[in-house]
Design a protein that fits this description.
Elements: H1 2-16, H2 26-38, E1 42-46, E2 50-57, E3 63-69, H3 96-111, E4 117-124, H4 132-139, E5 151-158, E6 165-168, E7 171-174, E8 176-185, E9 189-190, H5 200-210, H6 212-216, E10 225-233, E11 240-241, E12 244-253, H7 256-277, E13 280-288, E14 291-293, H8 295-308, E15 311-314, H9 324-328, E16 333-339, H10 363-377
Parallel strand pairs: 3-4, 3-5, 5-16, 6-15
Antiparallel strand pairs: 1-2, 2-4, 6-16, 7-14, 8-12, 8-13, 9-11, 10-12
């Protein structure tokens, strides 16, 4: 096992060097396919730049699946590590290089392990854009191309926790989310004659302020909801009121119905505000359900996790979101967090940070847990 973990640490470095964005994980998936084929897996390409790897042994009918996301972020790396990104402006700042390495290690382990049944390892592009799993499940028709798994597990490295920590949360783990892109179109004018304009900055500002009433006045304080406007862009001159502005943001909740209801109120607020001033708008919304772990799937691996971990954390939740939630809506399973805090003070233990470098020592805990699950379910 230690030799396998050492191999995973080296392969992690290779993938950390070649981060790719969104659904365009071309070189990453090419490398994954080659490695998994070498381990004896049947590799099936799935839309877009994802793949599923299948290995059957014996006559067992049980089917177990693991999923790893592969995409990176549009962030310029500042870790200064020896295996830093070679792709300028792109970085594995969310630990997906770690996920790839653990999943490949599962393949490496499985080739020499005498299990009984079917093992499926899913490598997914586009998690950060929240469309990769949807593309795999809908456009790629993933479930029509594989035996349906009895159980599916995913792992996410989590720098909030020390190496050796495993997070086992029953029920909601990560928030339901939606992302919006809004364009407000008014009428431009000189800054000295605002009465001749339909000022999109004023309109947008009112929407930014008023939308918080959805959280503070239309939502129970016992039912958490986050609504954040994260971008507001318009204009380029000191004396010109622009014709339009663009805004972006996100909703987060553990309650799918609350998020959907809040979206409807938000859209109504936008339409009413724009109509009052004579402006028009275009809005795009894309949502994900809550990442909800099946209680039975957590119970099933609890003792295994205790065997391989230094510490177990229960009932942890985060307002971050994950498109693994779409898999969990179709297959019984769970997402597990693995502590990966890097003790080197020159790194910053925050996901999506240019100085985030998860500790490679975390890999062994994920690999050992996956191996234990294979041993239990496919015996």
């Amino acid at each position: 096992m230690e030799e396998l973990i050492g191999w995973a640490k080296e392969i992690r470095k290779e993938f950390h060097k070649i981060p790719e964005i969104g659904l365009e994980t071309v070189e990453t998936v090419k490398k994954v396919k080659k490695i998994m084929t070498g381990f004896g897996f049947t590799v099936i390409p799935i839309e877009k730049n994802s793949c599923v790897c299948i290995l059957k042994k014996g006559k067992g009918e049980k089917v177990l699946a693991f999923r790893a996301d592969m995409d990176a972020l549009l962030i310029s790396e500042e870790t200064g590590c020896e295996f830093s990104s070679k792709n300028e402006g792109c970085m594995h700042a969310c630990g997906h290089d770690m996920h790839i390495s653990m999943a490949l290690a599962v393949g490496n382990f499985a080739q020499g392990y005498d299990f009984n049944g079917t093992l499926i390892v899913i490598f997914q592009s586009g998690e950060e854009g929240c469309d990769g799993s949807e593309v795999m499940l809908k456009e790629g028709k993933l479930l029509s191309k594989i035996p349906k798994p009895d159980l599916i597990y995913g792992i996410h490295v989590w720098p909030e926790f020390d190496v050796g920590t495993t997070v086992l949360t029953k029920g909601p783990l990560m928030a339901s989310s939606s992302f919006f892109q809004l364009q407000i179109k008014g009428k431009g004018a000189h800054g000295s004659t605002p009465q001749k304009s339909i000022d999109p900055i004023l309109i947008g500002s009112q929407i930014v302020v008023n939308c918080q009433s959805i959280v503070s006045r239309l939502t129970s304080p016992f039912d958490p909801l986050v609504l954040s406007v994260t971008a507001f862009n318009g204009g380029s001159s000191t004396n010109v009121i622009p014709e339009s502005v663009k805004m972006m943001g996100t909703f987060r909740s553990y309650n799918d119905q609350l998020r959907i209801r809040s979206e409807k109120v938000f859209i109504k607020m936008i339409n009413n505000t724009c109509e009052m001033y004579g402006a028009t708008n275009k809005i795009k919304l894309k949502g994900l359900p809550t990442t909800t772990n099946d209680e039975g799937a957590i119970d099933y691996i609890h003792d295994l996790a205790k065997e391989v971990s230094k510490k177990i954390v229960y009932d942890y939740q985060t307002m971050a979101s994950e498109d693994f939630s779409l898999f969990l809506h179709k297959i019984k399973g769970a997402l597990i967090f693995i502590g990966c805090k890097n003790e080197d003070q020159k790194y910053v233990n925050k996901l999506h940070h240019p100085k985030n470098l998860p500790s490679s020592n975390a890999l062994g805990y994920g690999i050992k847990l996956f191996a234990k699950i294979i041993g239990k379910h496919l015996k």
